[in-house]
């Protein structure tokens, strides 16, 4: 039988969930309520919203680092891996990425730097494979467009892109001269 999550993990997951829904609603009281802990229990693990934000960014660094390792070692190559995974909003990285993005949108300098760094590393991995900065940026934009479309409400984009993914990956191959 798996152990129940520790209070710290529950609090951090609650904060991530609230950030994804909207940064303004991610108050300390809301975090404690969603995590099912007392305010004192919350403050024991995270004495401030800044401490919560830093924990999100630590988790973001860990999960995005794992994603970069997978991207760089993907048998299909970094470019196709990036496009293939860009529309998967059920991936472990997605809610943490969106939480970091919300923090960045709210002016958190560390979150903005972390998002920028991840995007630069994604681009560098693609460029290292394809050898052309313009092609690498185009592939990034394909992936970003997929992510944007599949994060929209409804099922149209998910169903459409699931069927179109092989064609998009073939386009990536053409862009890369394969």
TrEMBL record:
Q: Which Pfam families match?
A: TetR_C_28, TetR_N
Please provide, alphabetically and separated by semicolons, the GO molecular function terms listed in this UniProt record: DNA-binding transcription factor activity; transcription cis-regulatory region binding
Q: Key word RNA-binding present in the record?
A: no
Q: Sorted alphabetically, which keywords does the UniProt record give?
A: DNA-binding, Transcription, Transcription regulation
Q: Which residue spans does the record list as DNA-binding?
A: 27-46
InterPro entries, per database record: Homeodomain-like_sf (IPR009057), HTH-type_TetR-like_transc_reg (IPR050109), HTH_TetR (IPR001647), TetR_CgmR_C (IPR041479)
Q: Where is the HTH tetR-type domain?
A: 5-64
PROSITE patterns noted in UniProt: HTH_TETR_2
Its transmembrane ranges are none
User: Which PANTHER family does the record match to this protein?
Assistant: HTH-TYPE TRANSCRIPTIONAL REGULATOR BETI, HTH-TYPE TRANSCRIPTIONAL REGULATOR RUTR
- The protein, known as: TetR/AcrR family transcriptional regulator
Query: What organism does the record attribute this protein to?
Result: Nocardioides jishulii
